[in-house]
Amino acid sequence: MRILVLGFTGYLGTHVVERLRTLPGALLLGGGRSAAADLDVDLARVRPEQLAKALASAAPDTVINCAGSTGGDAVTLAEVNARGPAVLCAALREAAPAARLVHLGSAAEYGPGAPGTPVTESAATRPVGPYGATKLAGTVAVTASGLDAVVLRVGNPVGPGAPPSGLPGRIAALLREAGPGPEAVLRLGDLSAHRDFVDVRDVARAAVLAATAPGPLPPVLNIGGGRAVPVRDLVRGLADLAAFRGRIEEGTSGTAGSARSAQVSWQCSDIAAAGRALGWRPAHTLDDALAALWEGGRTP
Fold first, then answer.
1. Where are the domains of the chain?
2. Of 8, 110, 131, 244, which one is the catalytic site residue?
3. Which of 149, 210, 266, 268 could pair with 118 as two cysteines, CB 3.0-4.6 Å apart?
4. What superkingdom heads the lineage (predicted)?
């Protein structure tokens, strides 16, 4: 099986590639802007006909699209998260219409959740900002493409290698900078929100299962931890791992926290459908993910 991973050097893509390397009989191809890529492609810029030519040459049986952007202005987000999947689908229809497409979406597409009620795939989508809106546009492009495709709506990934552009990686970086001393002060933003955190290694396992599952899959599957966790608990968990003895100050003007807390105070995904379709459930707890994140960033 020839499997092409787009965005293979990113946070999610790196873990998907690592998981695929254990898959017997898989020929792995990497696509992206890295010099190590088998396919040099930038989904935000490439023309559909150029990408179709590259895909025809690669002849993938499956494409896993991990390419995406979580930061930047609305134009940047739209180019990567909305245009990218649309161009990919157009190119696949021309060059490899029988290939399966596994696209990584985001739980941010749902928008605010109702406290105590996990959101299912049939729930209304009401994203509150450019990130969620552009990810939703990418999902629509995939689900309307007519391809053998599935979108995995991923919760808040956490675990080894988490980048500082996301909340868990940012908190870990601040803790390393502050040090464990009792005089240290961590000034953070609003930590009152609840989020559905999922270990990045479980996300990678879900992507590989979706790539190799026989027969058609539902158009959208939620991939999350299946429970709403206070962001405050994540911060406290990382602080304990860091043996942080200083003071944590929480407010509305700190340097870290949940930027969307005021608009999306509660998120939790119902992950039952992924269990039925893929036989998938999270294998790692949040404590596992936080420990792997913290240990992975230690200097030798």
1. 2-160+197-227+268-284
2. 131
3. 268
4. Bacteria
